[in-house]
Amino acid sequence: MNASNPIPTDYETFREGVRAFLKDALSPELVRAGERTTSVFSDFEAGRKWQSILHAKGWGAPEWPIEHGGTGWDIQQRYIFLEECKLANAPNPVMMGIQMLGPMLIHFGTEAQKQQFLPGIISGDDVWCQGYSEPGSGSDLASLKTTAERDGDEYVVNGTKIWTSMAHHSNWIFCLVRTDKEVKPQAGISFLLIDMATPGITVAPFPSLDGEVEQCQVFFENVRVPVTNLLGEENQGWTVAKYLLEFERGGQHFTIELKKQLSKLHRLMTSETNRAKDDPTYAYRVAETEIDVMALEQTELRIKGSLSAGDNPGALSSLVKVSGTELGQRCAELLIEAAGQSAIPWQSEVLSPEYTGETAAPAECVTTMAEYINSRATTIYGGTAEIQRGIIAKHVLGL
Amino acid sequence: MNASNPIPTDYETFREGVRAFLKDALSPELVRAGERTTSVFSDFEAGRKWQSILHAKGWGAPEWPIEHGGTGWDIQQRYIFLEECKLANAPNPVMMGIQMLGPMLIHFGTEAQKQQFLPGIISGDDVWCQGYSEPGSGSDLASLKTTAERDGDEYVVNGTKIWTSMAHHSNWIFCLVRTDKEVKPQAGISFLLIDMATPGITVAPFPSLDGEVEQCQVFFENVRVPVTNLLGEENQGWTVAKYLLEFERGGQHFTIELKKQLSKLHRLMTSETNRAKDDPTYAYRVAETEIDVMALEQTELRIKGSLSAGDNPGALSSLVKVSGTELGQRCAELLIEAAGQSAIPWQSEVLSPEYTGETAAPAECVTTMAEYINSRATTIYGGTAEIQRGIIAKHVLGL
Amino acid sequence: MAAQMTEDQTLLKDAAERYLRDSYDFNERRERIAAGHYSDPTQWQAFADMGWLALPIDEDLGGLGLGAREMAILAELCGQFLVTEPLIEAMAVSHAILGNSAQKESLLVQVAEGTLIPVAAIDEAGEAARLSPTTQLTEDSGQWRLTGSKQWISAGASATHLAVLANSATGLAWVLVSVDAEGVSREIYPTHDGRGGASFKFDVTLDNAQIIATGEIAQDALTAYRELAMVLSSAETLGATQAALDTTVDYTKQRIQFGQPLASFQALQHRMSNMLIQTELTRSLVYAACDAADDGHADRGRFARAAKVKAATVGRKVSQEAIQLHGGIATTDEYIVGHFFKRITALESWVCSKGEALKEFMALPAAQH
Amino acid sequence: MAAQMTEDQTLLKDAAERYLRDSYDFNERRERIAAGHYSDPTQWQAFADMGWLALPIDEDLGGLGLGAREMAILAELCGQFLVTEPLIEAMAVSHAILGNSAQKESLLVQVAEGTLIPVAAIDEAGEAARLSPTTQLTEDSGQWRLTGSKQWISAGASATHLAVLANSATGLAWVLVSVDAEGVSREIYPTHDGRGGASFKFDVTLDNAQIIATGEIAQDALTAYRELAMVLSSAETLGATQAALDTTVDYTKQRIQFGQPLASFQALQHRMSNMLIQTELTRSLVYAACDAADDGHADRGRFARAAKVKAATVGRKVSQEAIQLHGGIATTDEYIVGHFFKRITALESWVCSKGEALKEFMALPAAQH
């Protein structure tokens, strides 16, 4: 392992290829969409456009097996690709289909399901959202109450899902539903793929704390879903979901984003507009954060090494998620301090990639407050930091 | 309320009187004992001598009622007295008798018990230790197993107590013992006053982590205690103890000691021998600690104000204990950083007030490591920080 | 723990709290702000009618002659009820800037009546302007002129008048200009704390009467304004912090996960205990800073800065924890707790950041006692 | 999470761990130290026999020619088993100081055999001496002389020889003196980490052969020694930190309070999770610092300092938490966990404090990649 540069030199040609492609493919508008991203989602249309460009290049889903459209890249190449996309300010497409559903379909799906769904996911023509959480079932996901009752060749779905990111832009949703109320909670859950155009589905978007709309509540009233849209066996949905949750937590590369945040902090440190430069603790807090990012990067590399060796990272993905999200929050705090009052304006229109006008906040602070606000959600979604610490206590420490 | 100087000017005469007395009464040896104190206990003989001097002056137990030897001082005067003692480096006598047992005896004791025990406590002729904890009963004090079975006019005590500070110097011990095993734990406990000279008592001192001996385990084998030595009713020991615990936590003046630590830190800040002066965070951490001490001091004043008004501080004493002990730990950390390697020598003989020779550590660092080590125990004894946070959650937040 | 208050202070607090609880609804506030009304004229008139605007004005000028402690009572309630009207701004300007001017009589009566809403305009693009602005007050053949620009003025959208900090040939100066005056341009924008901000450009010809203070008096007014702003922003932060904690305690008692209320989970209990401990410690320091200011204590500057550092630190931590302990619901705009977090964040750097306050604290030696 | 190691590294670690587990008993150690024997000659001979002392010595000098990664494996075990013999001191001196001297052949063979136990003597009363000592190497008519004093030399009680950092007319110099040499006085004292310390006074006449390095070579040796010491002290801290965590996990599983094991209390579980997370992050950084040193990476200085900062920060926090989660038993000298805490505390400021490391880290720009 090479300590600070994880990529041996023979990958440099690959990196240059990626760079050249990005330079060519990213329009100024797409770059603006990337720059003005304040959460895991960029401007929807920009993200969708970018996915279609990637797909045309054959890079629509690098992590998938080659036969389904994957690139065949090894772990290093995938890391380089992600890193270069981030550095080039490429926007983030809606990734629930590619990152979450895709691996599940490939693992649990029938041939027919794979043929029906995978092409639309990789091309970006189909946009998928995730229907797991419910108003009463957050951390205690297994208590979910949305039911699916078998009626001939269909399930009839009733209930509601919440925190369904991007549901208002999606034409498909993958859902956990209760198919057996008599057994213990985890054992009565199934995994359904539902066309959002089915009658009986209502989508209610609502604004997040930063004022933008990404989240929705989705209501199901006698929604009829063909049984062929069951992924995995009936009542095996929890097993399917657990695989997904692990996939969501594992193999993430938090340090790519964190290093970008650090570069921004370093630029700000010497900038005239740094509102925190009179804070005697500021430079040291940036340095300590940098050291912690180095430690996380080396930990990601250790895990990547053990993945290459065929190991399952298991509960260690909880360690990376907790550290990565909490470090992201620290970076966001340092940035908000540097921005001071100049981060307080909230001009929603500025976040649009079409917007090229004046901004009340200085250019480098336009997204700072929204990023700070949204950073707080990163330790809540995808399994709260408390749930992750519980997993570590149980599975790593054996408590 | 006057913000930074809690003492109105008309107390200045009182303060001068205290100062004059201390200047006169404290020998260089007693001052050395005060300076080289690394925990709540000073050198035993020095502390005992100081108690006899205080008693001769009529100041042996300022907080007691006048009829039992108290001074009649108000809260401000008691605060001034403690503050001046601290500033003058007076040693700490063993205070379990005066601070803990005394108020209990006065509140629950019979006339005969008061007459028998109070004079010996205030003069320092009797040295008392506290027999509460047992090897299996720490935070879960009510699970204690030491038994006292009634046999005629005596109880027969069997079992063992641990963390019995200064038992090896004590001639009396006040104990919680189980007198009824059939009821729920708290309801079967009684409070006994036991002469350490009674046959069947063995004291086993053991060294603390700093290498010094303050703690003991005490074994009881068929120890016969007259029933007249029962404090309060039989099986009411838990009520007695709770009063004591609250007394131990409440009305403490952590900031007197903390401000002394801060003065030391300020002196060190500009000293040549400060090993932390190259740490870019050091001065700011001292300042933040100072601000937190100011906040605690103002909180102690608020509580004192509400005590003057006759209120019971209740669970707020938990707040003060948690904050005071954790701030003490922060000061100890700052001091150990300033001392660096010069704090690592451990010369037990140097702690003796008779010692006037050379020291491996520089004068200002002789006690630094022991203080740092012992600071860790302050959030464990007298109810752990976890127990205190539980009390706050339950009694203040109503969780 | 009850704060020690005089009877009059208790009356003030109880009446104000009752009013805001009855009349300052969170959902109405959201709708109003969404419609671009950052300040509600009806509320402002009510504040005037209840005497809040006269509170910091000297008695001989028709005010109530009260001090930092009473202003802080209102500021704390502003935090608790997420008041978007510029109450702390107006109180701080009245007390520390206008109150020392030659024109104070005529100005303060308008402030007390609610017709003149003054906000201080200090910030500029460069941070150094907070102590020495580039905005200039110049004189040319007996005619005074104000030129320059101010940015990110919190509640600048709601002000009728600005107390503008400028530099002049004789040092600092405070100038009072109407936001509608010729030569003043204002750009209003929404803000994350709902207060509405504005940037200003000035090229204004002034009456002598608009020059509120110059030279040493202006410098003293800046010091007084900054210290009062530190105390009041700490008090408002404290109010929002306490409210975030209270909301969290209530929510976790009701929210059931894994068959039990969240409040029954020990890890969360201990964190809420920490939130309470830190909030109470902050309270003590904020009130002490008020008393020090009102007593003219030699250490009042240290106390103001200490309160600022403590309140900013604790407010950030507690409001972050409040969101975390709630979970998803706290990340929605419809739920109140995140709005405490946003307001606390905005207050962190208002007039003086925690870092500046800490640095200034370190430079101020304690008075002997 | 298993660390990635070569097969040879795994063999080294397993054998060393087995030896220490079988032969380095905590209670024997306590009794030995109480009797004033800070280093056990039998242990030292065993270390030599197992090749540990030859490990950092070049192969062409009869050593094993291994690097920081292997030294760190041993250092980590020293932390885990609370080894009081000066193994990290001797390894760092051999590798970074003696290994660059003209006399290396004759010296290192003695080190490898265990007959020469070298410890670096850098600290003096003033902190600045760590980079520029007042101890002087002077020449008078062809005769070299060392004069001055050194203080708080960790394991100074166990050294046979000192590598003394001095100043000379041509800059820094390293001088090797026997602790028994005429003109060397040693004052030994017990230490809180059981290692035994010493202060030294020198007024010694030297052979040329005792002058190990001067000028630029001496300066480079100081840099190399400091960076290796940072890495090895981080590794030893890591070993003690992991051991403190493991001890805590074991104890809380067994200790019953309120009818359940302490380990079942959620507040404690989350704290132990934090301890684990931080320990693993530290491990990654320590190993990376080793690899950077062994690869001669451009950023090796940054990695060494980052590892030092992280290990010192985490070691302090985790060992403090370990004591707190144990409760009373951890505050006794008889129980092991507090000894990890004491050793970690001593390592915090050994050769380079966390604060110095952080300051130096901030001054070192990252190499481009």
Walk me through the structure:
The complex is a heterotetramer, with two copies of chain A (399 residues) and two copies of chain C (369 residues). With 399 residues, chain A is of the alpha+beta class. Chain A folds into three domains: 9-93, no CATH class; 128-236, Butyryl-CoA Dehydrogenase, subunit A, domain 2 (Beta Barrel), CATH 2.40.110; 252-396, Butyryl-CoA Dehydrogenase, subunit A, domain 3 (Up-down Bundle). In chain A, 44% of the residues lie in helices and 14% in strands. Chain A has twelve helices and eight strands. Chain A has a four-stranded mixed beta sheet. A four-stranded antiparallel beta sheet of chain A has the order 2-3-7-6, with no helix packed on it. In chain A, helix 5 (96-108) runs antiparallel to helix 6 (111-123), helix 8 packs antiparallel against helix 9 and helix 9 (282-308) packs antiparallel against helix 10. Chain A is globular. Chain A starts with 11 loop residues before the first helix and ends with a helix. With 369 residues, chain C is of the alpha+beta class. Chain C folds into three domains: 2-117, Acyl-CoA dehydrogenase/oxidase, N-terminal domain (Butyryl-Coa Dehydrogenase, subunit A, domain 1), CATH 1.10.540; 119-214, Butyryl-CoA Dehydrogenase, subunit A, domain 2 (Beta Barrel); 218-363, Butyryl-CoA Dehydrogenase, subunit A, domain 3, CATH 1.20.140. Chain C contains eleven helices and ten strands. Chain C has helices spanning 7-23, 26-34, 41-49, 68-81, 87-96, 104-113, 215-254, 266-295, 300-326, 337-348, 354-363, and strands at 118-121, 136-140, 143-154, 161-168, 171-178, 184-189, 197-206, 211-214, 256-257, 260-261. In chain C, strands 1, 2, 3, 4, 5, 6, 7 and 8 form an eight-stranded mixed beta sheet that branches. In chain C, strand 6 (184-189) and strand 7 form a beta hairpin. In chain C, helix 7 (215-254) packs parallel to helix 9 and helix 8 (266-295) runs antiparallel to helix 9. Chain C starts with 6 loop residues before the first helix and ends in a 6-residue tail after the last helix. At the A-C interface, helix 10, helix 11 and helix 12 of A face strand 3, strand 9, helix 9, helix 10 and helix 11 of C.
